[in-house]
Structures
1.
Amino acid sequence: METITVEEQNKTALAREMMEKLVDRRVLTALEVCVRCGTCAESCHYYQSDPKTEHTPYYRAEQVRRVYRQFMDPVGQAFPGWFGAKPTTDEALSRLAEIAFSSCTLCHRCTFECPFGVETAEIMRVMRSVATACGYGPEMLVEIANAAIAKEENADLFRDIFLDQVKELEKEVQDKLGSSEARIPVNQKGARLLYVPLAGAHTIVPQAIIFNIARESWTLSMFDTANYAVFLGDITKAKRIAQRIIKEAEALEVQEVIITECGHGYTAMRWDAPKWFGHPLPFKVRNIIEVIDDYIRDGVLPVNPATNGEPVTYHDSCNLGRKGGLLEEPRRVLRAVVGDFREMTPNRLHSYCCGGGSGLVAVPEWKDIRMQAGKLKADQIRQTGAKTVVTSCDNCRFQIGELSQYYDLGVEVTSVSELTAKALV
Amino acid sequence: MSLLEIVAAGIAIAGGVIFVAGIVAILIALQRRPYGVEMAPIKGSPGRGVFWSFTLGMAPWAKASARLHWMAYLRGVILHLSIFAGAAYLIATPWLGVMPGPLRLSLTVLFAIGAVMGLAGFGIRLANPTMRLLSVPDDYFALALVTLFLASGAMSAYSVAYLPFFWVVAGITLAYAPFGKLKHFLYFFYARIFLGLVFGRKNVLE
């Protein structure tokens, strides 16, 4: 007879408790509505790249559904064999964690291909939360999320290094603009905008050039927008990470928080944070693309598309596009700043994930999985004949850069901000 | 009414009562689950999103999956239309005797086609290795029930003599519906509404 340890019993109890807490009306509906018709299979980039049972959305969701039947469904508990309820062991939880974290990028594409609109991504999100609570969250993601919290706790330690780095970047901006007046303001109380970058000069320098040319009243955030707790489904930590920016914005009394080109960072702050905190944020949240789009439409930024003459295509980040609502804004900007813009097919709502979303890019041991899952995106890029791929998400950027090497695409990957800065006349 | 008809009608009514009670229980359980109220300023229209969700969002041309699996999609549409017609027919059966002949003939044909589509469901489920792997007894039983419901409906529309048989099958189907996968008919509306609300407010629906 199989022995169940106390630790295993505790984990199962915790998993049950978490599931009870997290299955809301939307998730319950997603769990109950699926009829396992199988039409979702081809909607998934994992399945398209490697067509096997484990890569179908309904297989993944079904594994969680069977645990739900055991934990929460009285009919499933009464007749487990009939309804497919499954006993939850330590091994099963570990397997479910692996499915939720590495076999689904929560891209939501299958939802729009399903006749019912089953939100498998929401089921997987809950499974990620359950797995994280039970200690099965990928170590790398946990460490990155903890590091973001530690940065706020030790802000004084980082401040001087940060300010020195910003001074260096400011010189770079001044050199590029040929003006010693150009600034990267930090801690500017009363500025109109607080711009939140990512780690990396490519999310500061081009945007600083744009803000300076537009004569914007802005200030640079000390923190970065990445919120890896979102990928873990750890809302407590996600709130703490978001809170750093909220507190900074409140202290500086800004009117708007502008998130850099980061898919999950934008969605977390724009759409999720108000729900987590239970009230609207005391400032407007926009993405840098929306700001650039407005500048170009208002005639504030003089751009010359001929500067970016090579064929360019755009990859819709799932978080920024399908889940974030920014589908047309990047396209309007790109049409203004590039000479030869080409769409991938399908795009926008039906765009395929690059294969690196929802934290996959951060875990080195998942590289093979990512490269396999990204094959479809690589094929799409190749079909456009583009020399440059633009994406508004740093995770997608990293993934597509690696896809380019892996599949020998020979493309450069860049952002909307960088191409805009390049097109300025 | 003969004794057989009285017993069959009793089973159908009992099934209907269990069905209604079961649906109410599902709705209460669903309402008791938390619902995270959206607090972020909206970009699009949740109402238009819901409208999209039940119209263009369900159109076969809007889904690559429908084009790819057009036979399964068509089968599903026919099956579900005939089930809905069967439900309406069930309510009308006490007046079957006065129902116009051409209507009864049309219903016979529709239900017979629906039953064939139900049978085809077994073939599809068994032929696809993933579907076969993921199917549980509930899947097959639910499919058998609706197939039998449509077959008996076709028989009773053709000849009143089969009406007690249809009532018995309908009673069992109704009684089972809130417990097994057949309850997806109710969750379907919720799923489409949530989809429209969530993505409509983000202005991403085309």
2.
Amino acid sequence: MTEPLLRLDKLTTRFHQAGREFTAVDSVSFEIQRGETFALVGESGSGKSMTALSVMRLLPPDAKIASGQALLEGEDLFQLTEWQMNRVRGKRIGMIFQDPMTSLNPVKSIATHILEALKIHLGLTGEDAHARCIELLHQVGIPQPERRLWDYPHQLSGGQRQRVMIAIALAGEPDLLIADEPTTALDVTIQAQILKLLKTLQKQRQMTLWLISHDLGMVADLADQAAVMQKGKIVEIFSKRDGSLFSQPKHPYTRQLLAALPKLDSCLQRQSVPTPPLLQVSDFRVWYPIRKGLLKRVADYVRAVDGVSFTLQQGKTLALVGESGCGKTTLGKAILKLIPATSGQVYFDGQELSSLPIKRRCRAMQIVFQDPFSSMNPRMLVGDIIAEGLKSLRPEMDRQARIERTEQLLEQVELTPAARLRYPHEFSGGQRQRICIARALAVEPQLIICDEPTSALDVSVQKQIIELLKRLQETTGVSYLFISHDLAVVAEIADQIAVMDKGKIVELEETRQVLFHPQHPFTQKLLASLPGKQLYRSSQFSG
Amino acid sequence: MTPVILWTDALLFLLVAAIVVLVLYARNQEHLRRPWRKILRDRKGMAALIILTAFTAIGLLDSVHFRSDGGGEVVSLFDIWVTPLKTRTEKTYSAPFATHLYTKEYMTLPDGSRQWRYPRLVYGGAHLSNPAEKWRDITMTAFTGIIKGLGLGAFFMLPLYLFRQKKPSCSDVPWGTFSTTVIFLSVFGFTLAELSLKYHVLGTDKVGEDVLYQTLKSIRTGLVIGTLTTLVMLPFALMLGVLAGYFRGWIDDLIQYTYTTLNSIPGVLLIAASILMIQVYMAAHEDQFANLAVRADMRLFFLCLILGITSWTGLCRLLRAETLKLRELEYIQAARALGVSHPLILIRHIVPNLFHIVLISVVLDFSGLVLAEAVLSYVNIGVDPTTQSWGNMINSARLELARDPIVWWTLLAAFLFMFTFVLSANLFADTVRDAFDPRRAET
């Protein structure tokens, strides 16, 4: 066996915060062979990014490498001086970060970014650098690189920005490329493109790829070796040589993670009994005017939602699926009248929605947001947050009754009643999402619009929230309009799926129909982009 | 002696009453009580609070006015308390702890010859037969002051200490810091009092008035300018800023145009105009402003008003921007989905989340306003020249520093007191902001 490119030996990294010590990376050891793809998988806070930052020696000031070695071709990176380490960063180890929006300097053109890297690592300047720059952009698949060279980051799409980030990382011709959640901020179809690009580049350049991700499916598709991390420790390492990745999990944590993955075929057992319609939307439009000229004349419209019609049945779940910017969130908010609609009719329980008084409408429909951190006022107690709807929509309730109802709701979403007197920041992401659900449930709505309620959460927490939503639907008979970008999550909960693209619904069918017999090319493309499909099947574990 | 209520007195006491009511209200609100407990638990905040309280106490004592029976002069409770300081005036400048005047005089010596000499002061060190023994006497006097201060401090703090010994766990307020600060203040106060009975601790000014007296009187002016201006400014800034940011559209346009217009007029011009206006008004209605103190107070009150009206724009702009950001947050949308009315959303969700900005800029403005007062006094549109204020002191120091030999103590006195006052206000505001930010509260 040849010498590994990178070998970590009992790496331990600790945080010192406010007098407390916290081990982020706990004696982690692994080897990355030349030319292979190694993946580090784990939930948020498991220490996977910290491992990479330790190797790069780019830790935040309150973190310290306590012990261990990181050998890059036999050379201990932790023994190098900062000056020598600077020659390693970018030149021998390149890195791509998660968020392409914040990783590029918005006041510098993309060429400046790449030229800087070329100058530092290869000493290239002038014509040579320019030519190399174009070549790199061409390699990462930016169309017409000569013309895009002097574009600024805001002129590029998210996917293109990530491609530029890859080009910058490749500029130093590194042996090892660390990709820290390279596609988390991107749409599935774009994700598929970026992953394909990484694979091609790796083949072309014989490059070693160290992938850091929370997405088991993506890792299963891409990696030769995968290590699962939990609370700073590596619990299990899988290798392609032992068969396909994650096929025989031994450690209970890995099993738990795999079991928590949403299953595409879980929709097959679902019985659908038709019920009367609750929400009927027809020819619904939300257009934003584009104003131009001196007099702000309306030149054109951005058609965020463009003629959408659907029907949601009582006690059922309709999922709205699409990529970012397709108008699914706008549609959800416009139905709630948080955003003014341009035209279209909405009937709720047989009545025209706009004819209903505001209080009645608010009691009938509620919303749960995506980001559990910004969806609660940080300066209010949880009890007050939940009771807010009761105060405004059921003024007849007295203080004592409200407190009782709040405690009952907290129990319903499986939190302790004592949580009433705490602040939102004292809770984890999953718990906060439960509080948000409790807030929506407080006024006993018939419909809850769930706007990506699980996409900011880890898989295992996602599973719990989905279970909770399903259970609440069984006990209270509430209907969900479930907005999501993730087909696999939707498969777990939806009775029907509406696939949206560019403001229009392109396909609206029963869940199993959409997932297993997609008709529209866009749906087919979405499904094809879903990485690691073998993991999203329940048959693997149940039988 | 008949009590006189000046405009600024009334407003200052109204403010105190409002604070008391707020405290009583907050006692019953769990989410308000918690951060205040946190402030009291913080050592830095506790020390700053006590020093601020001492300053405020002096300022409030100085705000209870009487008309003395004889001459009809308006004096405050504080004036009565420090009568010795007020009445013991020298001829002209004298340095801190000096026994002689700062300027030579042509005087007749005991032997009959006439020479240029530094004459002895009328009050400063007058009890000494030999001025050379001055420093021994100062040390002794200071020592007496320290002993008395310690005695009084210990007298008040001892029961507390004994109580804490018996029940060590009854509260987690840093009583150590509390009693240290109180004892320190009492020692400092007594030493100063003992010394100032015999000397001019911070010297005297051009007309021989004790500088310590001046700077202590200035506390009230600083307090009034800082708090009343804020009181005038805050409703404008908060209300208009929040309304502009939250409702946008034509409301936003209107408010923005208003403050852009107001901002483009030089503030000094507006202040000068309104001060001249009030002077003309006072001249025309002399019967209403018969008294010197009433006139000076009216001018101070008007200065606060106009300073408030010219300085709300900065904070308003800041609050508008923050509100624009907040209104897009999901918890605001959730509240709208829950049918919460707009005024309630503003009060319950937006204003509390602007609180830290308000607090920080109010405290920064506070020190800025005390300084602005100094600048305005320089162009003679500040407080009345008869009003004691740090601004007037600094203004007079301008000429004194150009003298040879220089007179430095007026500036030093104003600087020392202003510095302590503004610093403790800053430290206290820091603690308050940290305590009210729940995300930082737990660490």
